[in-house]
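May I ask for an example protein's residues together with how it folds?

___
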Amino acid sequence: PDPQPDHAIRMTKFARECLRKVTDLTHKLESTLGPDTGDLSMRFGLHSGPVTAGVLRGEKSQFQLFGDTVNTASRMESTGKKENIQISQTTADLLVEAGKEAWIRPRDELVSIKGKGQIQTYWVNLKMGPANSGSSTNGTDPESSERSSNGEDGDSKGYGQSGMSRPQMTSLMLSQNRRTKRLVDWQTDILARLLKPIVAQRDRKANAEFLSDPSNVLEKGDCVLDEVAESLVLPKFDPHAAKAQSGTAAADLSPAVMSQLRDFVETIAARYHANPFHNFEHASHVTMSASKLLNRIVIPEDVNYQRKSAKAIASDLHDYTYGITSDPLTQFTVLFCALIHDVEHAGVSNSQLGAENPAMADKYRNRSLAEQNSVDVAWDTLMQPEYHNLQQCIFTNESELKRFRQLVVNSVMATDIFDKESKSLRNSRWDKAFHSDPQAELVVSEEETINLKATIVIEHIIQAADVAHTMQHWHVYTKWNERLFEEMYHAYENGRSVKDPSEGWYNGELWFFDNYVIPLAKKLDECNVFGVSSDEGLQYAMANRSEWAVKGKEMVDEMLQRIKQKEQ
């Protein structure tokens, strides 16, 4: 390579442009790959000095760089922070000599480098201007940026506080956390895509009638739990509806619907509290995981797509997935429930919630308090007159409204995995649908069996998505596991829990894997509609369980230390 006297300027510009490009790319990919894609980031380290370069002999010969300069540049990267560029004193001096002192500012603390001790390094300002011109939303203040991304700054006030109007809460939430805004964008986009098939089917009905006031149509039970049905009834296969659904690319949502959908998502996001775990980001992760499972159902691998008749393929898909592929309302509702399932979660267990709020405990009969409250909050919000166009997009008549309500109730209530009565009902339903003796007398009809299986699949999607972090990559599991630990530890510190979670967290995680996560992953496989997703989930769950068994005790100590450090 040819020596470049202005190499420090060139490489600083190059690093800054790379950072801008990768940020733009990850934000674009969020709409297709999910919100966690936005967490992907880069960090850069620069140092200037002499190097030795050449091609080494051997089977894998390649051009390489050697020397202390290369090692120091590597340390600049490894001790840096995400979405930032850290440079050495030498590179900083070159930039200053070139008149670019406004590009940099010293790092607040010294950096420890092996073999060199404590050294001063510098951050590259990612926006042009004076070195100390103030805060930036684009990473020019790594310390504050790091705090915000970890929920220590922008999220510290919470969004569900009393004394604030909904528009005020929404404005606060969006102004404080740009990540939340991206999640709102993604949630709105994915729900809009699932609304389009509903519109496509409805457009073929020329005389569709709309409910003028859906809030007064339903006869709800004394509490949400009273409405849980043993079996949901999905529509029978309709070839005309299937044909209309296949043309959803041409279906369009009116500006009014899109505006109301986004406003609804923003409102729900604003009503999530700033808990370390049960927050709007968790709801978005559950939505993403549910979407992946739902896509596995909607596009199964075991159907012969080479058949000439589209009607025959649609019929096969309907039978294979117990009718879920033929019903866009069901598909929409699954992700709608993922969005709302923990809204207004208080960051404590249901038993503690009942002790703190006797009126709520009495209202919901001391069962599934958080889950029932989430349904009521989200439903009451959706039924407001300001969402009239959105309502008409989701349901047009009393039958559709009742089916939507039933899907919402069953799906959200299924996320309470510790209520003994609900668990017993689900186990009984499972045995009746999948473990019935073929030689025994027919207890339920074939149609009832299909509806039972459809109900089980729908509830298993939301259950699996709710704990999806346990069935994903190790780093995803540890990220959310630590957030849940932090939430429960804060509850203990604040007198909202009698038990110190650090004392039993290691064994508790092993118990949870053995008694819930791994059995749930096996049931996903037994449902026979999820394809390779069920195998992947089971493999990741077992791998995470094994790794936790080895590393878990040490990790609990480390998580506790990090919490103590944050509090200092």
Notes: The chain is about 60% helix and 5% strand. The mean pLDDT is 84. The CA atoms of residues 183 and 374 lie 19 Å apart. The longest helix spans residues 532-567.
